[in-house]
Amino acid sequence: MNDRHLGRHYIGEWIKHRRISLRKLAARMEAEPGEPMLSHASIGRIAKGEQPYSEEILLALSEALDCTVPQLLTVNPLKDGEVIDMLSLMKDKDPATVRAILTGLPSVKKRA
Questions:
Q1: Residue 46 above 70 pLDDT?
Q2: Residue 111 predicted with pLDDT over 60
Q3: β-sheet bridge partners, residue 30
Q4: 15, 23, 39, 69 - which has most CB atoms within 10 Å?
Q5: Following DSSP, what letter does each residue of 24-53 receive, concatenated?
Q6: Nearest to 72 by CA among 93, 50, 92, 55
Q7: pTM for this model (two decimals)
Q8: How far apart are CA 10 and CA 58, in angstroms?
Q9: Burial class (CB in 10 A: 0-12, 13-18, 19+), 73
Q10: Burial class (CB in 10 A: 0-12, 13-18, 19+), 93
Q11: 90 in Cβ contact with 102 (< 8 Å)
């Protein structure tokens, strides 16, 4: 796999959103059982956009941060955190039930 940096990502924001230290995150990411994938310093550099990452690293980060790879790359959880958490709770539910709940919610009017 080629290392790459695909431009803007929200890895650092996901780390803050999950309130996890870089050391704990590194401990969750193992190449093999008992073998760390990368150091906490490397994760910090990746989060700051100073170090490239691979698909394997993105997959491990998404598992360790309980989100999807597309979310890591496109969603800022610090802005949309409550919505993301609600969607995560609903992901294993019956789609028809989720649709019924969402369509049954009253619309919120913005105040002028």
A1: yes
A2: no
A3: 36
A4: 15
A5: HHHHH-EEETTEESS-HHHHHHHHTTSS-B
A6: 55
A7: 0.68
A8: 11
A9: middle
A10: exposed
A11: no
